[in-house]
Each structure stands twice: as structure tokens, then as C-alpha cells.
Design goal:
GO terms for molecular function: transaminase activity. It contains 18 helices and 14 strands.
């Protein structure tokens, strides 16, 4: 396996053998498999494992000493220097083709200009969001007192917004008092705080396969061991779920219950009860990411509702329905955990953004928000049908027809690699989301996630048809 990786790196990067050894050591230092002060593999040991001469390894080590990356201690060996390299997420884990790397999708989507098409991104076009409600909220905020515009927020976050979130959660069967809710800067920050609070490096975390690709990146940032369980149209594969939790004893399970990303599937009550029973049996904490809640017509089962926030931590945000520029999310959990999370929030971001919380509160309290969401749900359902038909005409088949939301998880024609399609489409200024970016097992080679709200332009289908035809040949 090591020889194969070395040959691949040499062929792709054109490195000499010495440069390959240096890159290998740098990668291990960046990924913290070689930590500060750690002893490097012996010259003979590394030479044998990489099938290289000892002189090649000696040369590489000497160059790394000259760079200051490692230290030489005569008679003892080589050690990671005090000036260790910064942690580099891109170096953690096996090297993936950049076309199926989550950072590739995120960067291309975020850096795209207004003329680029983004069927692979995870948000609505600006014209689909409630701009008028946000403008009214901004005007209201402009008339607020000085504290709202200039002061820190309280540690838990703006009380009226937490009260509103508590009522909204109650509509989905989740009982949480305002004191059990802590505001965060986003749903992503909420998960980050939970990981900081509950995980130690090396802890095992269970995710769906496929799942939202940034879960992978975030968990790697926390040095967690990630294991996956196949996802079905009604939730995780229960037989495999039971096997995985028994074998790996994960600390956390991170999932979507309502509208699953990327599949659009909905958790069934039977699956939810079985998952909670297994969580109780194996002392597993569940993080329920519910950022797509407002896209539903009828509330799906929530693990937090069945569990009463005993083993489930519930999170949400408003980036997908209000504005990605006004970043605001929340965590709901049992009181003793909210207390610890609040201390951690103070340590990492102090008081949080009061102005954004005031803005979100004003927008959500506007009677136009609910009307907007009702219109948006109908618009997405109509668009979902249109895009599904057009994709099927290209031989791209939805894995299921979602009940709500913006995503279609689709299988490409046999023999087509989604990464190849994404690379070719990018040359035409179209950003796509290949399946393996979502799959820990790398078993979604010919799958792709489409955001239907971003896939209406005829150019997207023209380019897809052209690329699929060329790739098939």
C-alpha cells in the first residue's frame, strides 16, 4: 500500500525519491501523526517500508533538518522540531482527487462569480430568499437603541430569539425551554463547539454514508476517528448501525433527521426508535442537525422529540432560509451540557453577535417570513419535478424522489465517474458536487448531488449532456 502511494505521488507530482520522503514526513507532521518532539522512523525502517535506499532517506532527513522541520540527535535519531508545522486539514487522511475533496466543492462554490452556475452548492440563489423581510428587519434594527447595535450579547444569546426558537421547536414536538437553547454564529459553529465539548483526539464518531461532506472536514479538524454506516430512504441501515456501534463504540453520531443531506431522505419513526434504543444501550450521544427544518411541509420524526434531549443534541440555523450573510445558529441540549457549552462559547468567541441575532429575530417575527416559506416550499416542489425530469432525460436517475428540500441525490449512467464529470464541467464554469465527497467509504463514484434551485439554467443541462457523452466515449 505504501509503495503504491509513493509511486502515485511521484507520477502525479513529478517528485524525486528524496522529495517524496520529505513530503511524506511533512504530511505526517502536518496531520499530527508525528507530533511535537516525536521520534521519526529510523532511516533503515523508513527505507525498508518505502522500498528506497538508506542514502535516499538520509538525504531527505538532512534536508528536513536544514529546513528546521526536524532535529538530529547523534546516537538517538531524528525528532520533530519545536517549530512544528501548522495543522493542515488537506494533509489529513488519504490523498483524494481534488474533484472529490469537500474543500474543492466548497471553495469552487464560494469563489464562483455571478455568471457561474452552481448546481453543486448547498444554498438557495439570493433571489429565492426573503430579501424584503431582511430589508424591513434592517430598517427596524437601524432604529434600535445603542446596546443592540454596539454591545455584546449575553452568553446564551438574545433572550427573545431563544424564546422564539423554543416555540418553533415545540411545533416539531421538541420540548426545550429558552434556558436549554444557546445561540451560535452558525450551525457549523454549533457542531464545532459540541465536538470541542465532547470529543478527545482519537474518539470515534459515526456518520451516515453518504452525509454532508463538511462533517468529514470538521471531524478531521478535531482528530476524530470517523466511521460510516450506509443510509437508506428511511434512515441509517439498522443492522449495520447495530454492528458498527457494538464494534467501534462511537462517542457521537452526527446526522440529519428531517431532510437528509445529500439524499433528501426522511427518518422513519421505526428507525428513529431503534436508533435511540441502540444509543442508550451503547452510551452514544446523537447530534441532530436540523438546519433544513423550515423546508418541510409536514414535520418528520425528530430524534430530539422522542428522546427529550437526554441523549440527543439538537442544532439549527437560519442561513438556508433567511441569509447566509447573517450567520446565526443554535444548540438545544440538556441544561448541564448547555452550561458547559456556554463556557466554551465564551472562551472561543466571547459574547457572540448580538446585532445578527436582533436582525434574525426581526426577520422571523415579520409576518412575511411564514408566507415566504410557504411559497418557497411550493416553488421547490415544482422545481424538483422539473429538474428530475430533465436529469432523467440525460440518463441521470434520482435515488429517490424527496418529500421536500432542495437536493436530488442522483446516479449517473453506468461507467461514468462523477469526479471526471465535475472536472470537465468546471472548465465550462459549472460547479458540481461529486458523490464521493459525501461518502466516507468512497462508494459513491457514480453519484452526484444536485441543488434543484441552482440547476434551472438550460446551460447546465447542455453542459451535462455534452460532458456525459464525451465521458462515456
Amino acid at each position: 500500500m505504501v509503495r503504491k502511494a509513493v509511486r502515485m505521488n511521484e507520477e502525479m507530482a513529478g517528485r524525486t525519491r528524496v522529495e517524496t520522503v520529505m513530503a511524506t514526513i511533512r504530511q505526517r507532521i502536518a496531520g499530527r501523526s508525528l507530533t511535537l518532539g516525536a521520534r521519526l522512523p529510523s532511516v533503515r525502517g523508513l527505507a525498508a517500508s518505502m522500498k528506497l535506499s538508506t542514502s535516499t532517506v538520509v538525504d531527505a532527513y538532512e534536508r528536513l533538518v536544514a529546513e528546521g522541520a526536524i532535529l538530529s540527535r547523534p546516537g538517538s535519531g531524528f525528532y520533530v522540531a519545536n517549530q512544528a508545522a501548522p495543522f493542515a486539514l488537506a494533509e489529513v487522511g488519504p490523498k483524494l482527487d481534488r474533484a472529490v475533496d469537500p474543500f474543492w466543492i466548497s471553495r469552487q462554490s464560494l469563489e464562483a462569480d455571478e455568471t457561474d452556475l452552481k448546481p453543486g452548492c448547498g444554498w438557495l440563489p439570493p433571489s429565492w430568499l426573503p430579501g424584503d423581510s431582511m430589508r424591513r428587519a434592517l430598517r427596524t434594527l437601524a432604529r434600535a437603541d445603542g446596546a443592540a447595535l454596539a454591545d455584546y450579547s449575553s452568553p446564551l444569546g438574545l433572550p427573545p430569539l431563544r424564546q422564539l426558537i423554543s416555540r418553533r421547536m415545540g411545533e416539531r414536538g421538541i420540548e426545550a425551554s429558552p434556558d436549554q437553547i444557546m445561540l451560535a454564529d452558525s450551525g457549523t459553529q454549533a457542531i464545532d463547539l459540541i465536538c470541542r465539548f465532547l470529543l478527545e483526539p482519537g474518539d470515534t464518531v459515526l456518520v451516515d454514508d453518504p452525509c454532508y461532506f463538511n462533517f468529514h472536514a470538521l471531524l478531521r479538524a478535531h482528530r476524530a476517528k470517523i466511521v460510516g454506516v450506509p443510509y437508506t430512504p428511511s434512515g441509517p441501515d439498522l443492522e449495520r448501525f447495530a454492528e458498527v456501534v457494538a464494534e467501534h463504540r462511537p462517542r457521537l453520531y452526527i446526522t440529519n433527521s428531517a431532510i437528509h443531506n445529500p439524499t433528501g431522505a426522511t427518518l422513519s419513526p421505526v428507525t428513529a426508535h431503534r436508533v435511540l434504543k441502540l444509543a442508550d444501550q451503547f452510551d452514544l450521544t446523537i447530534v441532530e442537525d436540523d438546519i433544513f427544518a423550515d423546508f418541510e411541509y409536514t414535520p418528520a420524526p425528530r430524534l430530539a422529540a422522542f428522546d427529550g434531549l437526554e441523549r440527543v443534541i439538537h442544532i439549527g440555523s437560519f442561513s438556508k432560509t433567511l441569509s447566509a450573510s447573517a450567520r446565526c445558529g443554535f444548540v438545544a441540549a440538556k441544561p448541564e451540557w448547555i452550561d458547559g457549552l456556554t463556557d466554551l462559547k465564551i472562551a472561543t468567541s466571547f459574547g457572540g453577535g448580538r446585532m445578527t441575532a436582533e436582525l434574525v429575530l426581526n426577520a422571523l417575527s415579520d409576518g412575511g417570513y411564514r408566507k415566504h416559506m410557504e411559497t418557497l416550499r411550493h416553488r421547490l416542489a415544482r422545481t424538483m419535478g422539473e429538474v428530475s425530469v430533465r436529469l432523467k432525460g440525460l440518463g441521470i436517475t434520482p435515488w429517490l424522489e424527496p418529500q421536500a428540500g432542495m437536493f436530488l441525490w442522483c446516479r449517473l449512467p453506468d461507467g461514468i465517474d462523477a469526479a471526471d464529470v465535475a472536472r470537465a464541467a468546471l472548465k465550462k464554469r459549472i460547479v458540481l458536487a461529486p458523490g464521493n465527497a459525501f461518502s466516507l467509504s468512497q462508494s459513491a463514484t457514480n453519484f452526484m448531488r444536485f441543488n434543484v434551485s441552482q440547476t434551472l439554467d438550460a446551460r447546465a443541462f447542455e453542459v451535462l449532456g455534452d460532458v456525459l457523452g464525451k465521458t462515456a466515449r
